[in-house]
Amino acid sequence: MLNIFLSYVVILPAALICYFPMKMQLKRSGLQTFLIVSLSLSAFIAAQTFLTRFLDLKENDTLMPFLIVSFLGYHASLRLPLKKTIAAFSVVIALMSILANIAVYLGDLYGAAPGMSNYSANVSLCQFVLYSLSALILACPFHKYGKLIIDQPSDSKGWYAITLFSVMLLIISISLRSIEYRLLEESQLLRAIMIVIIAQLFVWMLMLVIFYFAISDTMKNIRMEERSKMLEMQENQYLAQQRYIRESEKTRHDFMHNVRTMAELYDSGDNEALGRYLHSYVRTMPTSEVKLYCGNIAVNALLNYYEHIAMENGIDLMLQVSLPGTLPLSDVDLCIITGNILENAVFACRNEEEGFIRLSIRAEDGIQLYIVSVNSFDGVVRKSGDRYLSTNRRGEGIGLSSIMSTVENLGGVARFFHEGNCFYYNIAIPL
């Protein structure tokens, strides 16, 4: 009875590993998710222990149905696209299969295992210890670095590749499990199997490291592009201001000549000519190409840039901005959020006859930053669960994913929704 119970209890540390990178992707609070998962798994362990004991079932007889049900519950608890959930689940299952074979090997060293395909109480206990140790070891890296991989938008090919590698490792583990015990009595074969298992573990770790650095490089490139775009906008704003200054200097230089001319026209009593001259003079006065929306230079440049884009596309853009010169969050993060909102909005309503964008950004009492926006669009949306998918490419929208991950990394909340032909952004970030 004990070996049956232990063979199912190993599920608990495996479930923990599955949820380590998912802090920002839970549909419910962390406590609610923990209670639901704990109670569900406890009920399953108790039921399966009873059924296996009294119906003379093998542990592996219920393994596949349980994995399918577990995955469906896992996916339902997360705000992730299917490709990411499958990849995360398969990575953990691949590791568990490798550790299970190590447990069998260690059990064989102590003469406790009847073969690679069966379990004893000692092997089950060894497996539980290995699973628990792996959960402790992976807690920090999965929570810190795994979270970074999961939260960031990335190419689908990467997720499909890591799923394929994990499935291959799982197939190898299952193949090793089918070796008959009498063949394991040969020390050379047993040594070869252990080498294969260790190689699997190494490949598993290498796979995750390579994937992490690939995602990191992608995000660095995106950040560099965002910074480059910000610098370009600021440069355009600077050049426009320089033109305004030069034109203003010329106007000031010519001011005395214009005043003398107007004085002579006044003294001659030719009011009609004076009026024409005044109107002509006003038209030649320089006007600034740069509007001052707020004291934040980076945001001001960004808003001027998209105002120009909106004018070119005939979009009615209304901006209400109340920001201090400095904020306790980076200009890059603020511009990533604002820029993606405006970029998505311009793309959505550029072909609308009466397209409009309304954007409000305000910092209230230095405590909370609110970004609220609404724009018109054609009313056509693509969704997967509660996630909006891109209408001009396959998969989730990169802009929305970038906004969501940036806001959540800042400890804020973001909500996107649509009503009719209007799309809404509601964002709150603590300062």
Write up what this structure looks like.
- The chain has 431 residues and is α+β, with helices and mostly antiparallel strands.
- The protein has 2 domains: 2-225, no CATH class; 297-430, Heat Shock Protein 90 (2-Layer Sandwich).
- 66% of the residues lie in helices and 11% in strands.
- It is built from 13 helices and 7 strands.
- The strands form 2 sheets. It has a 5-stranded mixed sheet, covered by helices on one side. It has a two-stranded antiparallel sheet with strand order 4-5.
- The longest helix has 81 residues, at 187-267.
- The radius of gyration is 32 Å and the shape is elongated.
What's the short story on this structure?
The chain is α+β, with helices and mostly antiparallel strands. It has helices at residues 2-9, 11-19, 30-54, 63-76, 82-109, 121-151, 156-177, 181-184, 187-267, 271-284, 297-312, 331-349, 398-409, and strands at residues 316-322, 356-364, 368-376, 382-384, 387-389, 413-419, 422-430.
Strand tally: 7
- Overall pLDDT metric: 79
- Largest beta-sheet details: 5 strands, mixed
Give me the strand/helix succession.
HHHHHHHHHHHEHEEEEHEE
Protein structure class: alpha+beta
What is the number of domains? 2
Task: Report helical residue fraction.
Answer: 55-70%
Strand content: 5-15%
Unreliable stretches, pLDDT < 50, 5 or more residues? 112-118
In whole angstroms, how far apart are the ends?
Answer: 56 Å
Rounded to an integer in angstroms, the radius of gyration calculated over CA atoms is 32 Å
Spatial sequence of strands, sheet with the most strands? 1-2-3-7-6
Number of helices: 13
Based on CA inertia axes, which overall geometry fits? elongated
